[in-house]
Amino acid sequence: MEKVAISLEKINLDYDEEADVLYLSFGEPREAKDSVEVEGRFAAKRGKLSGKKQVWRCPACLVDVVLPFLAPEPECPRCRRKMVSMLKPLVKNGEITSDLPKASEIREYVLEQIGKMPPST
C-alpha cells in the first residue's frame, strides 16, 4: 500500500457553530461519492481502504501518514526522520491502560505542535 502524507497547509476547516461541529477536508471540499444510505442514515462504503489503521506523525515537521495497523514503522516522506504512532489504547476491557496526561501536559504538547506549524498565508 502506498504511503500518504498530508500537509497541514492542505487541510480546510469549517466550524458549524449552531451544530457545534468541526468539519475537516483534505483539499477542496467535494461531493461525497463513496457514501450510501442505509436505513435512513449515511455510511461510507467499505472496501477501498478498509481495515484497522495506525496514524504516524513526524515530530519534526508534523507530516502524518496513515497505514494499515500492522505495517512497519515508516520514515517521514518529507524529512526522512523517525515517525511516532499517534493512536495508543487508553482503555481496554473497561480499564484505563495507562496514566492520562495532566491538563498542563496536554497544553504544553499542543503549544509545541502549534509552534512547528508553518505560518498561515
Provide a descriptive summary of the structure in words.
- The strands form four sheets. A four-stranded antiparallel beta sheet has the order 1-7-6-8, with no helix packed on it.
- By secondary structure, the protein is mainly beta.
- It has one helix at residues 103-116; strands at residues 5-6, 11-16, 21-26, 35-38, 41-44, 53-57, 64-68, 84-85, 91-92, 95-96.
- Helix content is 12%, strand content 31%.
- The model has no long low-confidence stretch (mean pLDDT 81).
Which secondary structure elements does this structure contain, and how are they paired or packed?
Elements: E1 5-6, E2 11-16, E3 21-26, E4 35-38, E5 41-44, E6 53-57, E7 64-68, E8 84-85, E9 91-92, E10 95-96, H1 103-116
Antiparallel strand pairs: 1-7, 2-3, 4-5, 6-7, 6-8, 9-10
